[in-house]
C-alpha cells in the first residue's frame, strides 16, 4: 500500500544528508526518521528528537549550507531524508537545528514541547514544522504552558480559641492585613452610633434656638439651605458620570434663597411669593451670560432648585412668624423626628414588603405603618399639650407628616437614582449630606403649616 502523502512510490533513500539533527543527551548526531516510509504518524512522533535548548559547541554556526541545486537557504530544512527529493523540499518529521540560526519543532505543526493540540497526527502535520530562534545559552527553556504551577506553601494559621470568628476578609478581620476593621453598620445600612449622635446634636441646636432667641432659627434654616444648594448643585454636575450634567448658577440661587427666607419671616406668604418669583427670574437672567448652549437644561435645574429647597423650607419660617411660632415649629420637628424613628424601627424589626423597590429598596410598608402610628401618637400629644388643640387634629397632623415625609424621601431617592449618586454629600456622619436630612422636612413643612392654619 502506498503510504506517501502526495501519492506514488517513495523515492529510494540515498543515505544521510549533509547535516543530521543533534541529540544533546546522546552527544552525537542521529538519523532522523523517514516521514515517507512505512512508519505511521504515531511512530514518527515517538522518534522525534527534542529541540536543543541551546547551541552546544557551535553546531548551528558550523552547519553546512543548502544542498547544491536544492531549495533556497530560507527554505532549507533538516531532519528529513537528505537523499529524498521530497525531504530536500520540506522539513523533516524530527526537530533539529537550522543552519541559519534556528531550532525546528517536532515536525507536527507544533512548537517544541507544546504537544499535539489537534488530535490524531495527519499528513499535513508531517509536512510542516515550527521555527523558533536558538535559545540563548544559560537561559532556562520556557515551561510547558499546559502545566499547572505548583502551589506555594501557605503559612500556618495561629491557633485560635473556641468561639473565635476566623475570616480571610481583611475588612472583617482587621489586624490580619494591618488595616483597621471597617465600622459596623446596622441592618438599615447606617453607622447607627454616629447617626444618633449627629441627630441629637442638630435637634438640640434647634430646640435651644427656639426656646431662647427664635430668630436664630431663621439663621439655622438659611445655613442649612445654602449647604443643601451646594450639595444639590454638585450632584447635578457629577450626575451620570458628568455626561449631560446641569450647571446650576449658585450665586443668584444663594442670594435669592436668603431673600426668600427673610421675606417669609418678615412679610409672610406675600413676601415669600414675591421673593420666589424674583429669585427664579434672576436665575434665568444670570444663566444668559454663559451662552445659549444647554440654557434650557440649566435654567430648568436652577428653577427646580429654587422651589425644592428655599421655597419649601420657607414654610418652617412662616410657622415661626406666628405668635406661638416657636411651639408650632417644635410640633413640626417632633412629628418629623417621630416619623423617621418609627419608620426606621418598624422597618428593621418587621420590614418584609417593599414599598418602592425600584426607587428606595430599604423602604417597607411595615416601616410606613410604624411611622404613621408613631406620628399619630406624637401629634396628638404635642398638639394638645403645647397648642391647646384637639387630639384627633394632632393624630391627623401626624398621619399627614408620615405620608409627606415618606414622599419627600422617595422624591430625593428618585433624584439620586436619576443622577446615579448614592448620597448628596458626606458632611453628616451616619446620615450622608445635609440634603439627606432635609428631604422629609422640606416635604412636610407646607402640610404642617397648612393644617395648623386650619386647626388653630
Automatic annotation (TrEMBL):
What are the UniProt keywords, alphabetically?
Cell membrane, Lipid biosynthesis, Lipid metabolism, Membrane, Nucleotidyltransferase, Phospholipid biosynthesis, Phospholipid metabolism, Transferase, Transmembrane, Transmembrane helix
Bias (Low complexity) ranges? 50-64
> InterPro entries, from UniProt?
PC_trans
Coiled-coil portions: none
**Residue ranges of the region described as Disordered:** 1-188
Please name the pathway: Lipid metabolism; Phospholipid metabolism; CDP-diacylglycerol biosynthesis; CDP-diacylglycerol from sn-glycerol 3-phosphate: step 3/3
Q: Where in the cell is it found?
A: Cell membrane
Q: How does it sit in the membrane?
A: Multi-pass membrane protein
| Top-level taxon | Bacteria
Q: Which Pfam families match?
A: CTP_transf_1
Q: Where are the transmembrane segments?
A: 216-236, 248-266, 272-289, 301-320, 332-352, 364-385
| Main subcellular localisation | membrane
**Per its UniProt record, what PROSITE patterns does this chain match?**
CDS
| Documented EC number(s) | 2.7.7.41
Where in the sequence does UniProt note compositional bias of the Pro residues kind?
A: 139-158
Reaction(s) the record says it catalyses: a 1,2-diacyl-sn-glycero-3-phosphate + CTP + H(+) = a CDP-1,2-diacyl-sn-glycerol + diphosphate
Q: Where is the composition biased (Gly residues)?
A: 93-118
Give the family, as the similarity comment puts it: Belongs to the CDS family.
What is the protein name given in its UniProt record?
A: Phosphatidate cytidylyltransferase
Identify the species of origin: Yinghuangia aomiensis
Amino acid at each position: 500500500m502506498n503510504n506517501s502523502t502526495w501519492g506514488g512510490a517513495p523515492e529510494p533513500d540515498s543515505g544521510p544528508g549533509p547535516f543530521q539533527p543533534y541529540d544533546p543527551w546522546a552527544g552525537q548526531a542521529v538519523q532522523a526518521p523517514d516521514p515517507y516510509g512505512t512508519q505511521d504518524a504515531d511512530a514518527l512522533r515517538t522518534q522525534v528528537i527534542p529541540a536543543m535548548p541551546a547551541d552546544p559547541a557551535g553546531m548551528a554556526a558550523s552547519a553546512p549550507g543548502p544542498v547544491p541545486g536544492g531549495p533556497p537557504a530560507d527554505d532549507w530544512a533538516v531532519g528529513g531524508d537528505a537523499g529524498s527529493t521530497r525531504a530536500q523540499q520540506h522539513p523533516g518529521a524530527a526537530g533539529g537545528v537550522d543552519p541559519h540560526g534556528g531550532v525546528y519543532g517536532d515536525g507536527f505543526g507544533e512548537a517544541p514541547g507544546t504537544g499535539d493540540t489537534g488530535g490524531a497526527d495527519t499528513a499535513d502535520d508531517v509536512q510542516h514544522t515550527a521555527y523558533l530562534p536558538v535559545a540563548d545559552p544559560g537561559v532556562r527553556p520556557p515551561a510547558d504552558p499546559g502545566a499547572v504551577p505548583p502551589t506555594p506553601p501557605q503559612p500556618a494559621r495561629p491557633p485560635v480559641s473556641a468561639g473565635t470568628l476566623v475570616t480571610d476578609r481583611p475588612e472583617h478581620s482587621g489586624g490580619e492585613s494591618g488595616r483597621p476593621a471597617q465600622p459596623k453598620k446596622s441592618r438599615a445600612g447606617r453607622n447607627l452610633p454616629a447617626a444618633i449622635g449627629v441627630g441629637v446634636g442638630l435637634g438640640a441646636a434647634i430646640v435651644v434656638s427656639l426656646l431662647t432667641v427664635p430668630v436664630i432659627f431663621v439663621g439655622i434654616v438659611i445655613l442649612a439651605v445654602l449647604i443643601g444648594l451646594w450639595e444639590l448643585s454638585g450632584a447635578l454636575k457629577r450626575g451620570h458620570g458628568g455626561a449631560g450634567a446641569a450647571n446650576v448658577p449658585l450665586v443668584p440661587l444663594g442670594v435669592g434663597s436668603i431673600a426668600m427666607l427673610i421675606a417669609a419671616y418678615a412679610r409672610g406668604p406675600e413676601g415669600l411669593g414675591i421673593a420666589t418669583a424674583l429669585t427664579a427670574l434672576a436665575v434665568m437672567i444670570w444663566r444668559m451670560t454663559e451662552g445659549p448652549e444647554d440654557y434650557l437644561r440649566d435654567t430648568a435645574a436652577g428653577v427646580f432648585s429654587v422651589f425644592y429647597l428655599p421655597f419649601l423650607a420657607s414654610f418652617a419660617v412662616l410657622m415661626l412668624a406666628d405668635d406661638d411660632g416657636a411651639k408650632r415649629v417644635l410640633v413640626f420637628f417632633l412629628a418629623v423626628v417621630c416619623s423617621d424613628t418609627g419608620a426606621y424601627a418598624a422597618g428593621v424589626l418587621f420590614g418584609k414588603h417593599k414599598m418602592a423597590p425600584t426607587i428606595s429598596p430599604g423602604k417597607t410598608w411595615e416601616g410606613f405603618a410604624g411611622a404613621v402610628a408613631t406620628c399619630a401618637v406624637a401629634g396628638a400629644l404635642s398638639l394638645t399639650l403645647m397648642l391647646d388643640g384637639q387630639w384627633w387634629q394632632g393624630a391627623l397632623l401626624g398621619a399627614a407628616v408620615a405620608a409627606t415625609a415618606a414622599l419627600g424621601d422617595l422624591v430625593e431617592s428618585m433624584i439620586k437614582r436619576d443622577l446615579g449618586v448614592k448620597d448628596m454629600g458626606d458632611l453628616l456622619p451616619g446620615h450622608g449630606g445635609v440634603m439627606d436630612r432635609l428631604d422629609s422636612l422640606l416635604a412636610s413643612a407646607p402640610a404642617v403649616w397648612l393644617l395648623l392654619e386650619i386647626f388653630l
